[in-house]
Amino acid sequence: QVQLVESGGGSVQPGGSLRLSCAASGIIFSFNVMGWYRQGPGKERELVATMTNDGSTNYADSVKGRFTISRDNAKNSVHLQMSSLKPEDTAVYYCNCNRPDGVNYWGKGTLVTVSS
Predict the structure, then answer these.
(1) What is the reported pLDDT for 70?
(2) How far is CA 84 from CA 14, 34, 53, 89, in A?
(3) Could you tell me which of 23, 38, 67, 87 has the fewest CB atoms within 10 Å of its CB?
(4) What is the mean pLDDT of the chain?
(5) Is 84 left (phi over 0), alpha (psi -120 to 50) or beta?
(6) SS3 65
(7) 2: Cβ–Cβ under 8 A, 6 or more apart, which residues?
(8) For residue 75, what are the contacts with CB-CB under 8 A and spacing of at least 6?
(9) Among candidate residues 37, 31, 40, the one with its CA nearest the CA of residue 50
(10) pLDDT at 36 over 90
(11) For 51-86, what is each residue's pLDDT tens digit?
């Protein structure tokens, strides 16, 4: 079965950095678009960043220049390096696998809290 397990969340002050990781199993990792989404308090889940199997990336305007997505197909992992964090980045961050047929798989999420 497909499993996505996030790690690396925590509490950080504004301007700080965190690196999220997602370990995937049960999939042929390289066939899928991987990504990170987030859901803040009282908000809908939104795209943060995605990366195709050939390295093409897409970022939300709100995180562009501050966040970097990466993936390691050999290790079945995807990461999100977050820098210059802002309070509005506070959210549960979810790892996503988008299959070629459009089916999505999700991790359970990891909480990131940015506050002073």
Answers:
(1) 96
(2) 7, 23, 27, 10
(3) 87
(4) 95
(5) left
(6) coil
(7) 24, 25, 26, 27, 97, 105
(8) none
(9) 37
(10) yes
(11) 998 899 999 999 999 999 999 988 899 999 999 999
Per-residue pLDDT at 28 exceeds 80: no
Say what the alpha-carbon torsion angle 66, 30, 4, 114 is, to the nearest 10 degrees.
0
- Residue 107: predicted pLDDT: 97
Half-sphere exposure of 18 (CA within 13 A, CB side): 22
**What does residue 24 show for φ and ψ, rounded to 5 degrees?**
-110, 145
Instruction: Give the number of other Cβ atoms within 10 Å of residue 95's Cβ.
Output: 27
Q: What is the mean pLDDT of residues 42-58?
A: 95
Q: In the numeric block, which tokens belong to residue 111? A: 């909480």
